[in-house]
């Protein structure tokens, strides 16, 4: 007898995607160890009953996922979620900063929050969350 069960606690690493052909939604979830050094990415596909909730998730939001491990058509390992709960809010914005340099945008706009890898190749290599910010104003 075997058991196929998964429980993930992690952060939404990208905007949820909707596949109209299969009527399924998927989201990329990133998990880390207690020291923040160990990272794994998990493609989570959700059942139809929780699709709307998943599409409302924001990047950087902490979630809990329970489900099973399967392989998709391309033989990639995926997590098929039966239940998903957001347990944190979307990370907030930062104080606006002035645009400088030759590549500064001429229009004020929101720069989306995103993951950035720091200390690449070193012993302290890790992912950090860069919060949403307003750029391109006060010119």
Secondary structure blueprint with pairings:
Blueprint: E1 6-12, E2 17-19, E3 24-32, E4 39-46, H1 51-55, E5 62-71, E6 77-86, E7 109-111, E8 114-118, E9 126-130, E10 133-135
Structure summarized in a few sentences:
The protein has 139 residues and is mainly beta. 4% of the residues lie in helices and 45% in strands.
- The CATH homology group name of the largest domain: Nucleic acid-binding proteins
Number of helices: 1
How many domains? The number is 2
Strand order of the largest sheet: 1-3-4-6-5
Helical content (DSSP H or I, runs of 4+): under 10%
* Biggest beta sheet attributes: 5 strands, mixed, barrel
CATH topology of the largest domain: OB fold (Dihydrolipoamide Acetyltransferase, E2P)
Q: Roughly what is the average pLDDT, rounded to an integer?
A: 80
Strand content: over 45%
Would you count the extended β strands for me? 10
Shape: globular
Please provide the ordered H/E string of secondary-structure elements: EEEEHEEEEEE
How much is the radius of gyration in Å? 18 Å
Give the end-to-end Cα distance, rounded to a whole number of Å.
67 Å
């Amino acid at each position: 007898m075997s058991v196929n069960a998964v429980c993930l606690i992690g952060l939404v690493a990208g905007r949820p995607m909707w596949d109209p052909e299969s009527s399924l939604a998927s989201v990329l979830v990133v998990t880390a160890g207690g020291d923040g050094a160990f990272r794994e990415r998990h493609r989570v596909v959700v059942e139809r009953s929780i699709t709307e909730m998943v599409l409302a998730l924001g990047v950087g939001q902490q979630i809990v996922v329970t489900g099973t491990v399967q392989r998709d058509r391309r033989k990639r390992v995926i997590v098929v979620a039966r239940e998903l709960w957001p347990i944190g809010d979307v990370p907030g914005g930062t104080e606006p900063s002035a645009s400088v340099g030759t590549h500064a945008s001429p229009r004020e706009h929101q720069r989306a929050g995103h993951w950035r890898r720091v200390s690449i190749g070193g012993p302290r290599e890790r992912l950090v969350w860069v919060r949403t910010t307003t750029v391109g104003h006060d010119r």
